């Protein structure tokens, strides 16, 4: 259950790194809200430390926003189209020289 919650939070952070801080805070809240009564006393301390650790971990993931990813995908697709066109032109020129 904890692993699923962490993975859900990381998926949310990857999909929108601009609000990753908010996602990390929500993830920490979800992890700590189900603590047994005996651990509720350390909840604030656990939230602070876990939140800081998860926030640092998501920052090191080198994430990009969905918009940036989509823009770069379009640039890559256009570049591939241009390369295909250039390869065809080169092949035609080489065929004429032979």
Largest sheet: none
Number of helices: 4
Q: Average pLDDT, to the nearest integer?
A: 78
Q: What is the H/E string?
A: HHHH
Q: Estimate percent helicity.
A: over 70%
Q: Any idea what the shape is?
A: rod-shaped
Distance between the termini: 67 Å
What class, by secondary structure content? Answer: mainly alpha
Overall structural domain count: 2
Strand content: under 5%
Q: Give me the count of strands.
A: 0
What is the gyration radius calculated from CA atoms? Answer: 24 Å
Please mark out the parts with pLDDT under 50 across 5 or more consecutive residues, or reply none: 18-22
Short précis:
The chain is an all-alpha fold and 98 residues long. It contains 4 helices and no strands.
What does this structure look like?
- By secondary structure, the protein is an all-alpha fold.
- The protein has 2 domains: 1-63, no CATH class; 65-98.
- It is 79% helix and 0% strand.
- The protein has 4 helices and no strands.
- Helix 1 packs antiparallel against helix 2.
- The radius of gyration is 24 Å and the shape is rod-shaped.
- Mean pLDDT is 78; it is low at 18-22.
Structural topology:
Elements: H1 2-15, H2 20-33, H3 43-59, H4 66-97
């Amino acid at each position: 259950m904890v692993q699923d919650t962490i993975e859900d939070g990381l998926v949310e952070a990857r999909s929108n790194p601009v609000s990753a801080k908010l996602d990390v805070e929500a993830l920490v809240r979800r992890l700590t809200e189900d603590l047994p009564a005996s651990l509720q006393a350390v909840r604030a301390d656990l939230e602070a430390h876990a939140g800081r650790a998860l926030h640092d971990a998501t920052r090191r993931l080198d994430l990009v926003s969905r918009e940036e990813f989509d823009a770069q995908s379009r640039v890559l697709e256009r570049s591939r189209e241009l390369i295909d066109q250039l390869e065809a032109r080169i092949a035609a020129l080489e065929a004429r020289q032979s």
